[in-house]
Structures are given as C-alpha cells and as structure tokens.
Amino acid sequence: MFAVVLLAAGCQSPPSGAASAEGGVAAAPTPMAAKPSEVSTQAYANFAYAVLLHARSDRLLGQARGLTLTERPPTAAERREFHRQATELWNEAVLHYQRTLVFDTKSVAACNQLAEGYFDRGDTERGIYWLERAVTRDNDDFMLAYHLGLRCERARRPADAVKAYARAEQARTDDDKRRLLPLVLLKLGSLYETLERFDDAVGAYERFLKLKREPDEVYENNTALIELLDNRAPVHRKLGEVYARLGRHRQAAEAFQEAYRLQPGMHRGLLKLAAAYSDAGDYVRAEATCKEYIEKQPNRLDGMALLIEIYRKTGRLDRAVASAEAFLKEKPFLYQLHYLLGNLHEEMGDMEKAVSAYERIVSDRKQFLPAYLKLVDIEAKRGRLAKALAVLCRGLSVSPEDERLYVELDRRIVEAAKEADAATRFRLAVDQADHDFAFYYVLGRLAQESKKADEAVSAYREVIRLSPDFVHGYVRLASVYIGERKPAEAVKVLKTASEREPSNILVWRFLAEAQFAADDLTGAVDSMKRVVYLNPSSTANTLFLLGLMNRAGKTDEAERFLEQSLEKHPEEAERWTGMLAQFHIDHTQKLDRAVELLKDALKEHPESRELTATLGEAYLKQRDYPQAVRALRRAVEIEPEHIGTRIYLALALERDNKLAEAERELRELVKTDSKSDALLIELGRFLVRTKRSPVEGVALIQQTVARNPHEPSNRLALGGVYLHLKRYPDAVDVFTKLLEENPDDVLARYQLAIAYDEMDRFDDAERELRRILREDPTDAPAANALGYMYAVHNVKLDEAQKLVEVALKDEPDNGAYLDSMGWVLYRKGDLPGALEYLKKAIAQEPDAVIAEHLGDVYTRLGQKDLALERYEQAVKIDPENDAAAKKVKLLKDGKDPLVDGK
C-alpha cells in the first residue's frame, strides 16, 4: 500500500506541453495570472509574445513527433524541418521570456513557462533551474514547490527534492495542499531515508500519522491514499524500519506492534516485530514472536534464520546448529542457511565443518558472495593462498560484475605472488573443468604482480578469447602494455574494449591516457570528449579533457567548450564559471574576463567558497594583491576549515608584503593540526624564502623528517630548502641518500642535478638528467633543465633546442620553458626568435632571470632604453640580483653591460 501511494504521488505531474514524452499534444500554455495592471506594459507584451511563440513551437514539435492527426505521417525530411522551425521559435520565445524578467524581475509566470518549455524539450536541468527560480519568487505557492519536488525526484536529485517538498509543506494552505500534503509527507520520509537522514524521516512519518483525515472528496477519490489514511499500518511499519536503522529498537518494536495490531493479516509484520525485540535484547518476546511467525509461515527461511540467530545470541549454539541442520534436511538448497550454519561452526571453533558449509555454496556456483569471501579468509589464514585464489576464481566466474571480488583479489594477490611457485600452486588448486576466463584472469594477475609481463599478456589474451565481453580482461592487458612502455598496443586493446562496451567510462578514460602516452593527442581528446559526454558532471574528467586540448594546441577549442557549457547549463553556472575562470587564470589570459565572470556568478552564489577563492586567485595572477587578500579572507570566512584557501591567503599576504600577517596565518594553520607534515613544511618554506627565520624554517622541516624518516616528500622538502639557501653539499647529501633507497624517485634525481649544476659539477648534473630522460624521453622538467644547462654553458645548442621543444610540447605556456627556448635561441644568435619567446615568458611569469635575459637581448639589438627597463625590472623583482644591478649601472654609465661587465 505504501509503495502504491508513492506511485500515485508520482503521477501527480505538472502539465506537459506538445513536446512531452509522456503523452500527446497538450493545450497551448497560457499567461499565468499575468495582467497589465500587475506588471509593466513592456513585460506583459514580451510575455504574451513569448507565449504565442511557445505555443507555435509546441505545435510544430507535435507534428515532428507524429502526435497530431494528419492524413499521412510526416516524412523524415518534414520532421527535420518541423524540428528546425520549432527550435527557432522556442529560442525566440526564450529571449522574450527573459526580456519579461528584465522588466518584471518577480514574474513567476515567465519562470514557470521557461521551465515547462525546457521540460517538454527534454532539457531537465534547465527546466529545474527555471522552476527553482519560479519557486524562489513565490516560495509560498504549494503547487510550484510540489512540482519542483517531483521534477527533482525524476532527475534523481533527492537532496533538491527534499528541499522542494519541505518548502511545499510550509506553503500556504489551499485545496491543493489539503489534497496532496499526505503524499508530500510520505515522499519526504522516503527521500530522507534515501539520504540517510533517518531522524528527519521519523519526523515526516510521524507528521503523517498525526495528520487529520479529510473527507474523501478532498482527496479526489484517490482510493490508495484513502485506504492508507484509514489504516496507517504500512506507515507504522516504515516508522519501525527507520527506528531500527537508528538503533532505537524499543521504539521500532512499538511501531511494528502497532502495525500488526492494525493489520493482523500481514504476517511478515510478526517477523519484523520479532527482529526488533531481538535487537532490543528482549529475547523471550523475540523467540515467542518468531515461533508464532513460523507457525503461520512454516516454509519461510527468514523465520528459521531469525530463530537460529536468537539462539546464537542467547548462547544456545548447539540448539542453533541442530535447528539449522533439521531445517536443511527438509530444504537442502537454502544456501543462506548453509552460510548461517558455517558462521555457527566458525563461532564454535569447528573450522572443518564451517568450510564444508561454505563449500556447499561455492561448489554449487551460487551467487552468494559472503560465502566465497568467508572461505577465502579461512584458506588464507591457513596459509593456503593458492586455494584462496581458486575460490576467488570461481567467484569471478559466477559474479564477474561484483567489484568486491576484485577488491579481495587485489588484497590477496600481493601476498600470494610472494611465493616463488605461485602460478603452479594456483594451477594445481583449480580443477581442470574450471579453467575458464576467470582462471586465466587470476593467472594474469599473478604474473603481473610477479612482473612477468609475457606470461601476463598471454593469460589476459586467453581471458579475452574465452570471454570477449569481459572488459576487465582488456583493461588489465592494456595496463601490462602501459607498464612495458607499449602504449600503442594498449590503445589497440582498449579500442576493442570500447567497441564491446561503448558506455564504459573507465575504458574511455584509460584509452585517453593510453593515447596520450602514445603521443596521439587528437585521439586522447576525442576519447575524453566521450567520457565527458557520458558523465558531464565530473569536474575531474572535464579538467583532464581541457588539459589534453591545451597540450594538443587546441586552447581556443577548450575555451569555446567552456563558454558553450556555461551557456547551455545555467543550472550549473557555479561549476562551469569556476572552470572557465580557472582556465583563464591558468593560461594568464583574459584575466579581466575571469574576474568579471566570477563577480557575476557570486551575485547568484554569494556563499560559494570555491568561486570566492578562485576570484582571489585571479587577483593574484593580476598581481592585485590587496584585492586577492580581500577575496581570500572572504573565502576563509565562508569555509574556515578549508586548508588550501588559507594557504592561498598566506601567499597573497606574502605577495602584498604583509609578511607578519602571512606568518600568523600559517602558524594558526599549524596549530589546527600540529601533526600535519604538509603544514609544517609550508611554514618552514615560508620562513626560509622570506628570510624571516631561515634557521627555524629548516628546523621545522627537519622535524618532519625526524618524525617520518621514510616519507620521501619530507626529505625532498628538506633538500629543496637547502638548495634555496645555497647549502648545496647538504642538498646533495639528502638527495643522494634518498636515491639510494629509491632509485626511481625522478624528482629527487632532478633536484640532485640542479644541486650539481649550482656547484659547477656539469658532468654530474648532465649524467643525472640524462638518466631521467633515458627512462622517459618526454619528461618535460628534465628536458628543459638539460636544454637550459647546455644554453648556459653555450654547448650542444642544437640538442638543447630539441630538448626544450620536448618540454614546450608538454606545456606550451610554461614561462620557464619559454625562457629556456629564448635563451637557447639567444645563444644561437637568433635574436628576433629569442625576443619572441622571452616576451611570452615574462608575460606568463614575471621572473628576475627572464627580465635579465630580455635585457640582454635588447642590449644586443641596440635598444638600450628597453634593456635598462628590463634590467631594472629584474632588480625590482629580486633586489639581490647583483648581476642585473651591475648591468643597470653600466648602462647608465654609457657602457655595454655584455662587454664591459665580463
């Protein structure tokens, strides 16, 4: 009954227009209560014209969908033309509805018409957006809020549906509210359960139970609802279930008892009552009630299982086992009872009988995963890892879609692979008849974990042969190829998988990463477009797509994509505005546009920490530090616990030369979590780079190393501050020891090379960078560092140019990489080329070294005024840049800084 009533509630839908997917052509929309006396003449004129266009568009959509009665159905070409005309008319109607809102900002009718129009055209998100706007303008209108709740429910947005129904409950009372309020309360209760807000669910159900029964005619003869209001037993049962989930078992028992009193023919109510008594610790009542249920329902497993559980809870294990065994003689195929019997034997310490009970389920290949996991655990504890894997193998055969099996396999495979003959043991543990796709999948996992790539490839290929639709096999095979630096092979495998399962986001995402590794940026962009199409709500996937577009040189396309997404999804304006603004910030372009976007969005979302913090970041990029500080302080007010925002605030204060305030902010952060290595390191770096207390800064980072000596990031931070303080031997010592423990730590090797270069140990620096590039020829930081080092030493300039090109291919807007290319070209005598790159570099990153490089180029070009300007800029950015200061003096003295300064 409860479900029937909720279903009936779902049928209470808002009126649909001609484009509704639910039915035929509805009447044209009418201007809802819009009169010239209530709104301005211009608002009414625009609204009336919009309604006319809207109605014409609906009629054309009806014709396009064949919903209108005509002598013959329209041809495909006619349908397309109807659709085109309908779209044009709708877009024009939208424009006039929006103009209505310009002249009459409180027009509920315009918002409602926009909502219905979008709903009829299948654009649920925009429909909800405009319906929300309508409700905001009249939050006391019951039907508006109720319809919003229905729409949000259909769109699977339970939190928004709850807000709408709660608003409907509080709206002014009218005939609609009297008729539908019971449904609203039931829906609220159900949605609160979905959201696991059980206290709120209790409140909603209790308000329903207290609701005054209206005459039948008020409910328009809704039979299901009237029956429920006359006998509220189903709601009492619901209330009992929620109390049980809250752990309030005595109240649950009272609710189930009342439900059974009102509806004694509902025997399952006795079972719920018995379970509530048991959970409340009233085992005498629980046993008696459970036996009464078994008398009424003698063949039900659930009653017997509960009785056995009551015996177990009361320490009568022998009786529990005897009852289970007796029941299984009559019903030998009740696998849940076999599982319960296995649990009892485990509790009694009889592991052989427990294994026998679980194996009954596993040997019959039943889809009852807990038995497989129990058996795996027992076999693993016995040290029989191959047998444990064999059980998992059978589980995968039975339930290949159950992710819990893969989690368990990942956990067990690491331990099993430590045995030298793990694969042989596993083969012997699996019957020949079970050598199916799952057997080869586990065999492949063993080989992959043991770093036997050829064996893994062979096993996964057999998986694919035996089960062509088993996507995990393709993904695993591709992962082996990626590990073996064969991305092109991985791409082939994943393309096949995507054809098999075109809606699998994981496959498309992995394919994009493989294509990127294979240097197929265009393919990677196309694959990520598919990912974003399949899941447009994932910000992480969208950002990855934008990154790929940027690397593929499609920056303009990326910007257009963001602009169009913002325009298409006004209901997600906060998210898309944030990404578009961040895009402009990351590319140091259109920063004014970013600020404008963020300010406009904050008018609608003034409490958005993310938008406010992004605005602060935009001001930082503009070097408007006071504004950045103000914005970031506001972001911290909105969400004081957000550590990233507070670190950004400290940076803004530092850039604004408010070092004491920046230090205070960081020290307050450290107080909030004194055990956080990351926060101590952040404070330490600040104290070193600002020279406020280098000794304390180093000591703080040393403290993190002493506390977690095996954490590489702590030691990298320590080596980094040694580099900053020009304590190069200490830095070399830190990085060398780190590499002795972990030779694959690329960042440590890179930093070691930098330290060697600063110590004029050119050969050692070159050796370390070349080692990184041998492992990964596309490593951008290493390629840039080696190319720049060659330029500084004026050697191997052709190779230097190629190396920096590798880095720029990865990050074409990176200021450091642009500077390197400019300096390489300067060394090669290409002054116009050098000037072009260095101008781009200084625009991306106002750095003292880049400014000095620009000064040198202008000096060589004979443009001494521009050279002096850049040298002075370098000194302003870094007052300790003695080389730039010397060049300023030489230029002012009429000398050539590149000749007389040597």
Give your account of this protein's structure.
It is a single chain. Helices cover 75% and strands 0% of the residues. It has 49 helices and no strands. The protein has 902 residues and is mainly alpha-helical.
Specify the structural class: mainly alpha
What would the average pLDDT be, to the nearest integer? Answer: 88
Number of helices: 49
What ranges have pLDDT less than 50 throughout 5 or more consecutive residues? 13-39
Q: Give the overall silhouette.
A: globular
Q: Strand percentage, roughly?
A: under 5%
**Cα-atom radius of gyration:** 35 Å
Helix content: over 70%
Number of strands: 0
Key structural traits:
902 residues; mainly alpha; 49 helices; 75% helix
Report a brief summary of the structure.
By secondary structure, this protein is an all-alpha fold.
Q: How is this fold's topology laid out?
A:
Blueprint: H1 2-10, H2 41-64, H3 76-103, H4 108-120, H5 124-137, H6 142-154, H7 158-170, H8 175-194, H9 198-209, H10 223-230, H11 233-245, H12 249-262, H13 268-279, H14 283-296, H15 301-313, H16 317-330, H17 335-347, H18 351-363, H19 369-381, H20 385-398, H21 403-416, H22 422-429, H23 437-449, H24 453-466, H25 471-483, H26 487-500, H27 505-517, H28 521-534, H29 539-551, H30 555-568, H31 573-586, H32 591-604, H33 609-621, H34 625-638, H35 643-655, H36 659-672, H37 677-689, H38 694-707, H39 712-724, H40 728-741, H41 746-758, H42 762-775, H43 780-793, H44 797-810, H45 815-827, H46 831-844, H47 848-860, H48 864-877, H49 882-892
Helix pairs in contact: 1-8, 2-3, 3-4, 4-5, 5-6, 6-7, 7-8, 8-9, 9-11, 11-12, 11-13, 12-13, 13-14, 13-15, 14-15, 15-16, 16-17, 17-18, 18-19, 19-20, 20-21, 20-22, 20-23, 21-23, 22-23, 23-24, 24-25, 25-26, 25-27, 26-27, 27-28, 28-29, 30-31, 31-32, 31-33, 32-33, 33-34, 33-35, 34-35, 35-36, ...
